[in-house]
Amino acid sequence: MNLTQLKYFTEVVKTMNMTKAATKLHVAQPSISRSIRELENELGVSLFIRQGKKLILTAQGNYFFTVVNRSFNQLRLAKENVKAIQSLNNKRITIKMCETTPLLVSFLKIIHHKYPQINLQFIQSKIDNDPRHYDFQLVPLPVPEQHNELLLSEEVFLATSKENSQSTFQLEKINQLPLIEMNESPFADFTQRFLSAQRIDPQVVLRTGDRNLMINLVAQGYASCFVPELSWNCTTNLEKISLHRIGKNGFHRRIYLSYPYGPRTSIQEQVATLLLNYCHSLKKA
To answer: How many CA atoms lie within 13 A of 284 on its CB side?
Structure first.
């Protein structure tokens, strides 16, 4: 089995006519027929049912085409990604993430300030095997078979209005509070897993993706919400609310900077160092 055979096969499926496929590929029709026959012999199945000059794709042929066509699409994307990697010479850095984070604003600002020649791009994707090229990922857990650097470790607090002055909230008391939750996101998943592990089932009164709306509603005493101590502080005014440790030891979340193994360009190394230093400085502030 070789790429030429697979190329001939996919073109025959698309045209369902060997003569048309041969014309489009600029080869002789017998070459197409021989290639398909050799491919079927190697696989041990019939890919087509032949009714005179008419071709009908078999169930095996349909499955094989789906897999082969997907592979060709991935090869095409790989070719495009190779060109994208070459664009590093043009100072482009791409960061992939599952969901947006307030840290992006700060990242964009500090990278542009330090390296104004760099073109920073973002990819938002929930697909683990997204084939698009990226230089870094922002992830809540280390990615297997990649290099992972701890970018940020921060405590998650319970936010209430200023009227509540207690420093710590016992876990069982959260059940008694109306709560605002983030829409579906890694942070929302993280807090929900924590609460489930503690057998806490809070009274969720609102779900939203607007952090400022959450903080304003909490400040007015409408409900409480969970707030990470560092990353939200970049873009959200937390001075109007009170933050309380949850339980005796609190609970924390982590954000990792993940990237593929292998040689790194000087630009990639410089950006990684800049982001790591910036996030470490947040903890010291």
So the answer is: 6
Q: What six digits make up the tokens of 6?
A: 């697979």
| Contact partners, residue 25, CB within 8 Å, separation at least 6 | 7, 8, 11, 32
Per-residue tokens: 68: 């082969």
Closest CA relative to residue 191, chosen from 153, 244, 246 = 246
Q: What is the pLDDT of residue 128?
A: 63
Read off the tokens for 266. Answer: 């000087």
Report d(CA 260, CA 85) in Å as an integer: 13
Count other C-beta atoms under 10 Å from residue 47's C-beta: 21
For 176, residues 6+ apart whose C-beta sits below 8 A from its C-beta are 203
Report the share of the chain in percent with pLDDT over 70. Answer: 92
Nearest to 255 by CA among 141, 173, 172, 146: 141
Q: State the Cα–Cα distance between residues 234 and 102, nearest whole angstrom.
A: 6
| pLDDT at position 91 | 73
pLDDT of residue 86: 56
